[in-house]
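If you are new to this repository, start here. Below is one unmodified record pulled from the training split, so you can see the exact layout before writing a loader.
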Amino acid sequence: MNFFIFSDGFSIVVSMSLSHFEKRFNRALSLSFSRKKWLLVFPILALCGLLIVIFRTISLAAGDWIQLSLVFLPIFITAGILSALGLVLIEMYRHDVAGEKVEFSKVIKKLLPLFWGAAYLIIPLIFAYLILWMALGIFYLLRAIPMAGPLIGAIFSFGPFLLVLGSIALGIFTLLGLFYLPPAAAMKGEMSKDLFKSVVKKIRTNPFQMCVPFLFALFPLLLVIGVLSLAAVVTHMMYITTAGGLSIVLKWFFMMLPFCALLAPVVTFFFHFSLETYLMTRESAK
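And here is the target side for that same chain:
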């Protein structure tokens, strides 16, 4: 990237920072297309996809209130699985950058204590969502009151809106935690409440510096998911003709497999770049 250099030296600093950022971005991306990592990531994504398919299948015969829980709950469950996967990918990437060969069994043995900590930190998020979901159930009960229910539901419609908005915000916060917690845990060798609080403090202290790299890591993920989702929708419109319950479940399952296979390198890049961001943040703090 070329910039004009002014006498105050500001453009020199910006150019160096952007070139440094670009180098780390490209390195994280280039090392994401690895057969070994793909063989690790694909089964985990397939497992997460299977959980989502199971929850979605159950929701077919459920009411609106139950359906909402079956949409958000697998997000938090899979977040716990992906946080453990992220720890492994980050540790492998750290050795790749250093030019070192490491055995997969040794990586798992080293990170095993952190896996339980990752699951432990997801539990409060699930409880937080369940509180929002139960509060939403109150509005469904109010709407079900005979005669006056529709009017009461219309007046208090802002309540469900805020609760659903809170659930979406909780999902975004979970995704943000997936980006910043695994590299910090892998480098420090612990996954604790104090680590969680320190990450939250950094985000609140300098949200711009913490959110910009996250958006750069998130963009390829959203782009690929968008393209794959568009292909799935078009395939459903042009090819899937049956509308039976079992047919829908089978369609979701078998379309999910290539979906996860193509998504694996992007997920790998997401965690690679999370480590690069952690290292950049640590260097800037010195």
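Two things worth knowing about this chain: The CA atoms of residues 105 and 265 lie 21 Å apart. Residues 34-285 form one domain.
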